[in-house]
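Researcher: Structure prediction, please.
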Amino acid sequence: MIMTKANFILNNEKKPYAFRISGHAEYGNYGEDIVCSGITTATFTTLNLFDKILKQEDYTLIQNEDTGLIDFKLNKTDDLSLLIIQNLLDILINIEEQYPQNLKINIK
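Model: Predicted structure follows.
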């Protein structure tokens, strides 16, 4: 089954500092997929916030729209940045609980 996969990497204090999201939720047709829309909205809200509050050298971002890949890593961490990624993780956990066949989260 095709689904979106989200991997979060924790630091030594067990706080997420990096994530990789890939794939397509396949809940509905293109443009009507509410799961994909929710994941995309939460993720891009997070990325746009980082773009506003961090310097470009403070993070690494790789994107590929065709595969649905977003690979993000903080190169420099602070409490606010870690909290923002935790917030994304919390939102995605909520989506995963409602749509477990369309989103799978892995935390390492």
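Model: The CA atoms of residues 8 and 106 lie 6 Å apart.
Researcher: Thanks, that helps.
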